[in-house]
Design a protein that fits this description.
This protein is of the alpha/beta class. It is built from eight helices and 19 strands.
Amino acid sequence: MERKVKIIHCADLHLDSRMTTHLTKEKAKERKAEILKTFLNMVEYAEENQVRAILIAGDLFDVGNISAVARNTVYNAVKEHPGIQFFYLRGNHDEGNSFLQTGEHPENLRLFSDSWCSYVLEEGEKRIVITAVEQDTVHTRSIADSLTLRTEDFNIVMLHGQDREHETKEMGGNISLRSFRNKGIDYLALGHIHSYKRDRLDARGRYCYPGCLEGRGFDECGEHGFVLLEIDGEGSCTDHFIPFASRKLYTLHVDISECMTTPMIGQCIQEVLDREGYAPESMVKIQLEGRVDMECEKDISYLEKWLEGRYYFLKIKDNSRIKADYSQYAKAASLKGEFVRTVMDAEGVGEEEKAWIIKYGIWALAEEMERDG
């Protein structure tokens, strides 16, 4: 059986990310270590599965001033696996990092610059060649024009940036896929988008974003991992997405339109959680939605405490809106009626804001009447 050359394509690892947006200081520290460990697990996967090369298509790190533990861990992982070639294309988050300021870098670490650079990974009748350039936000089209490849090779091209037909000055650069068509590319290994995306580039090749290795926030829900390529001696290539994250993140939408009390809301949440069956190690954000009666009683803090410990992390965001029905008060010859009419006639106040003012105003009036009664 002919041996196939295996290559891992990953990107946007964002090692050393602070992770403090949602998590406590302790869990942020733990999560940061988990993401670094996932990188090490990927390298071990490569070793165990005879992977020849790991392509890192940008944003290996999250900030310029990286910690000593992150720098040394990555450096040692590369050095201790000399049978794997690491191709590191810096992304916009990698600018100015101190990873390569440790003197000589390992021989199996391949780097790129602001002009096209190519490395031959596999010699033979069908060479496998990896070509890349570190691009800025301005010269994308001219970079494409200067790319020259041998059509008889299996050509992998690495870039980091947003796939756009019209260039912008957004951080991270832009990639006009149209500019790279019919250039002899077999696999365009991209980075910058944090979710998996794959499609045809032209009649010959395909392009792929592997997404980030681990989801860090609730804008990065779903499966995360890397792409495994297998190339035979004739240049036939298959690529598969490999889920690899240590934790999954989920955003759960719960309609509470029919609920009137906190326990009823809790029951609604429980029914949806039971149906979804998330693993205990998951990170879950629950979004409460729908239009609730203005008399509805909600205690978000209680609900979060009630669900505490079921998942690694859980938060509840209340996006529900007041179902405004003022008819029972608006014509009443009472203090409540006068209050409702005053709020409804107020200029420059949105309907949702009016609903909240009326809700809490009526509650306050009711409490005052109880005290006076």
